[in-house]
Specification:
Blueprint (H helix, E strand, L loop, with lengths): L2 H12 L11 E6 L4 E5 L34 H7 L5
Antiparallel strand pairs: 1-2
Length: 86
């Protein structure tokens, strides 16, 4: 066990958390019996890239936000900030 890393994690947690777990803003489009469809909101100031919309389907057993777990390491964030419709 690395006590230095543990102390750093404890300090970061006390300052407001280790990771930014906020999800990208989204709107519910359809809520059906077998699942829900959400559209992620475009980021202001980003020019739309065009092209076909991107449909993300999470694997079985994974939560609906499987592609948007935390800021900085989010596929949804990457696509939306690139101007894609998700």
């Amino acid at each position: 066990m690395d006590l230095g890393a543990a102390a750093t994690n404890l300090r970061d947690k006390a300052r407001g958390g280790v990771a930014d777990l906020r999800r990208m803003p989204r709107d519910l489009v359809e809520d059906g019996r077998n699942g829900a469809l959400h559209r992620y909101r475009p980021v202001s100031g980003v020019t739309p890239a065009g092209g076909a919309p991107v449909l993300l389907v999470p694997p079985l057993g994974a939560p609906d936000f499987a592609y948007d777990l935390r800021r900085g390491c989010s596929l949804v964030e990457h696509l939306v900030t690139a101007g894609r419709t998700v």
